[in-house]
Structure prediction request, 469 residues.
Amino acid sequence: MTDLLRREPHVISAGLELLADAAERQAARVTRVDWKPPMTGTEGDLVTVLGDRRRTDANAFAVGRMLAARALLVDLMPARDALGLRPGEFLHAGPPITWDRASGPLRGALMGAAVFEELAADPQDAAAMAERGGFALDPCHAHHAVGPMAGVISPSMWLFVLEDQATGRRAYCSLNEGLGKVLRYGAYSPEVIDRLRWMASVLGPLLQSAIRAGGPVDVTAILAQMVQMGDEAHNRNRTGTLMLLRDVLPWLVEASFPASDVSAAVTFIGGNDHFFLNLAMPACKLALDAARDVPGSTMVVAMARNGTDFGIQVAGTGDQWFTAPALTPRGLFLGDYGPADANPDIGDSAITETAGLGGFAMAAAPAIVRLVGGSVSDALAATRRMYEITLAEHQHFQVPALDFRGTPAGIDVTLVARTGILPQINTGMAGRVAGTGQVGAGLVTPPAGVFPAALRALAKATATSPQPR
Prediction:
């Protein structure tokens, strides 16, 4: 007992900074624990959901299905063939929304897509059509698809087709246009429309020929390699793009297309570091769709934004969206743009974070801070913090800087509510005004309110569901 009394005092402080400071002044050894009470108003729902005897097994099942998915690029085809879209039908990023509530970049992308589809003579004509109810809008997520930023998919746009061959499940995404003034950021100038027409007439058919001739491309394997080579698969895809080009280049060269078309396609892909993003996203979508519809599971299977609302979906609550107003990212701006020019968060690309990539894998891609702001230590801290709100570590996505620990994957609604830690998302920023394009890139979190709303729905489902004995 005497020896114990002689030891240096050790104080563990859980959120009591005043106590910790006082102890340090008295030469005590202090360990500070970052602790907060649960999100306000969630206590009762947490008790109910944490008491659900299905929860542990349900989450293990959902996580297992997510981790088991293997995404292969098996084909490319127009959306009219892949998804059955008809003239006047458009898909968009995020939860459901109508034209009257649509943000500037989403409106701009829809206007440009209508001109591309030759439904309207010019963007203003397209806006008038939309005002009259001439557009049919539906979320990409409702069609096993995802779209970056505005996420608009129209019938003539070509899509990547990814498949998990063990289950036959498929997911889809458009082809990436590059950065700057592009449709997905709400731009609709003639150069944007011309690029889309070239992608539909040349790039899509050329890549289709190469994939059909060369066989499937293992997108999951590329994702695993790129995480170990400095990409996080949301805002940094340079390695993934070049590995994709390596895999398809022989078949592009052998395709029966004019050499000038092949050269233009290779130059376009090689010069567009974000090209692989539109494969990373459906690969993540494919994995998370496998985890849907698991009664009792509290795992998030989608985070998505339409520029007005931010929404999440949860494995145990079906297709229900839990939404709140989207926040505006903070970060770095292009040229003379500033915070007043940025639209609130937009895009389906947060599906990467939902699967353990993007902001959850920033420790694997410290150079990302040059695009979104912050420091290398911030990138490392962001990944470490996400382990506190996730159910698993991804066996494929391993982080060298963390001794090859798997990235945090499988966001748990109950852990978010208990800790108050919100998922970290890195993202591009679109201009508020339709037609502007990209204005910057930065960091953002979901609005906190979506998680208590999801927890409340889970609690109601628990209260009305028979419990296993």
